[in-house]
Amino acid sequence: MKSKIFLFVFFIGITSAFSQTIDEKFVVGKWKVKKAIVTKNGENPEIMELLDGFQKATYIFNANHTFEFSTASKSKMIKQLANVFKKNEWYFDAKKKHLRVGHNDDNYSNIIFHIKIEDKKIIFTIEDTFIEMVMKKVK
Questions:
Q1: What is the pLDDT along the chain (139 residues), one digit of tens a residue?
Q2: Are the C-beta atoms of residues 133 and 123 closer than 8 Å to each other?
Q3: 122: Cα within 13 Å, side-chain hemisphere
Q4: What is the rounded CA–CA span in Å between residue 100 and residue 74?
Q5: Which of 34, 39, 52, 113 has the most Cβ atoms closer than 10 angstroms to its Cβ?
Q6: Angle, alpha carbons 30-108-86 (nearest 5°)
Q7: For residues 100 and 67, what is the distance between their CA atoms, to the nearest angstrom?
């Protein structure tokens, strides 16, 4: 019985040691999209235009909490969003695992990413769009 308890505690310890913690330090850096999908309303042309633009984008979350967004998309809608994102800041809500982009006076509400790690994949889901992006941190 003691050996089963020991193995259980050992397994929990090893699992915790290899899991990543989603926190501010984790978020800081330059991110690219590996794969993006629409989980709902995929037939909506506006959502598909957003998907294309977000999939071709680079997201930079600087240590000083400034946010940079660039995309290779030529979409008019994405270009408008890129203008909205200029001079934005980011805030990480540790309890909800939300990454909010905008300004303090608007509660960082220009775009909200829900972050999770699933099957060793880092996934950012964009609130209200049903766009789910598998992300990769680049140096």
A1: 555 554 444 444 444 334 578 999 999 999 999 999 999 877 788 999 999 999 999 999 999 999 999 999 999 999 999 999 999 999 999 999 999 999 999 999 999 999 999 999 999 999 998 899 999 999 7
A2: yes
A3: 17
A4: 25
A5: 113
A6: 55
A7: 10
